[in-house]
Amino acid sequence: MNKTPLFHLSMRNEITKQYAWMVRICSFLFAILLGAVIFICLGNNPLEAYGIILSGSLGKASGIRQTVKYAVPLLGTALALAPCFRMRYWNIGAEGQITAGAMAATFFALNCKTMPQLPLLLVMAVAAAIFGGIWAAIPALFKAKWGTNETLFTLMMNYIIIGVVKWLQGGPWEGKPGSQIIPNFVDNAILPKVGGVYCGWIVVLVLVVLMFIYMNYSKHGYEIAVIGNSVNTARYVGMNVGRIFVRTAFLSGAICGVVGYMVASGAHMTLYSDVAAGVGFTAITVAWLAQLNPFVMVIISVLMGILEKGASSLQTKLAIPASISDIIVGIFLFSMLAGEFFIRFKISFRGNKKEAAA
To answer: Which distant-in-sequence residues (6+ apart) come within 8 Å of 177 by Cβ?
Structure first.
């Protein structure tokens, strides 16, 4: 006697835009309702709580600046990951590549203090891009030569570079002995502000346009798309798949490195082991929710910034623990990802019908 599966998962053949947006809206509403249940269980008014989230992130100029400050590295990292993911090369090492770029920039910030501001900032940016790119290209090179698993390799690379920065904090770059703190950058090594926020927001908006053109209208973008569809097809038409892996990974890491430079020089004015602050992992969700569309990434990054900054306001105004704020953010992320899942797949229930054996 054989049992048919209780349900069957299959790809949807045709998806209308109306259906896709209906699912996304329903996912968002579900997240709001689930978050409301959390607030009620804590004894808070959900309407008041959501009002605090919006006012904390968008109600004042300072809140808007903090929202943008959070969205900038998130958007930059999501853009960096997009080419790799389009190629189905799973770069999970953005956290380490951001840290590597920040570390390279910090080296020049600490050792070239007398250099004029513009040359110093340019040198820091180039160093961050090169070192971040190299750090990302190492796993790609191993994959191209020996077929290693890039997911595990890039993930492990995160911990290596973070460990190096921890050593620098308590060793060669430590400021006051015993402090485990790297000194703040001199003024020449700090990115200028535009609109009250470090100028990195201008850089990432330019990157949005450049990445859209690169992925959709360049030869490299075409090669990435072909490999993403079929590695065998790419090899059949004569593409050097290994070289494209390395090249694309280097580009991804270089952009992550620049993000690390902007965070260290613009947001924190120093380097520490948690300089990436989880952005490298959150950006994976942003990239997938946006379906690797750079312009949609802008919207999702800003929404994430609103949630993150607004949720932190709950701690001060409603005395809600930080862990609850993280749960609220997680609920929205999970719900939106679930929505994208049901847009792509459908579940067909087959019951528990039994087939008699012949």
So the answer is: none
As a whole-number percent, the residues of the chain with pLDDT over 70 amount to: 95
Read off the pLDDT of residues 130-186 as tens digits, 9 standing for 90 and up.
999 999 999 999 999 999 999 999 999 999 999 999 999 988 999 888 889 999 999
Tell me the average pLDDT of the chain.
90
Ranges 187-191, 284-288, 328-332: which has the least confidence: 328-332
Does residue 3 surpass a pLDDT of 80?
no
Q: Which residues pair with 193 in a beta bridge?
A: 198
The confidence score (pLDDT) of residue 350 equals 63
Q: Which of 100, 147, 120, 79 is nearest to 263 (CA)?
A: 100
The answer to whether the pTM exceeds 0.85 is: yes
Instruction: Look at residues 305, 322, 321, 357 and name the one whose alpha carbon lies nearest to residue 65.
Output: 305
Sign of CA dihedral 179, 155, 255, 129: positive
Residue 110 has pLDDT above 60, yes or no: yes
**What are residue 345's DSSP bridge partners?**
11
Q: Are 72 and 78 in contact (CB under 8 A)?
A: no
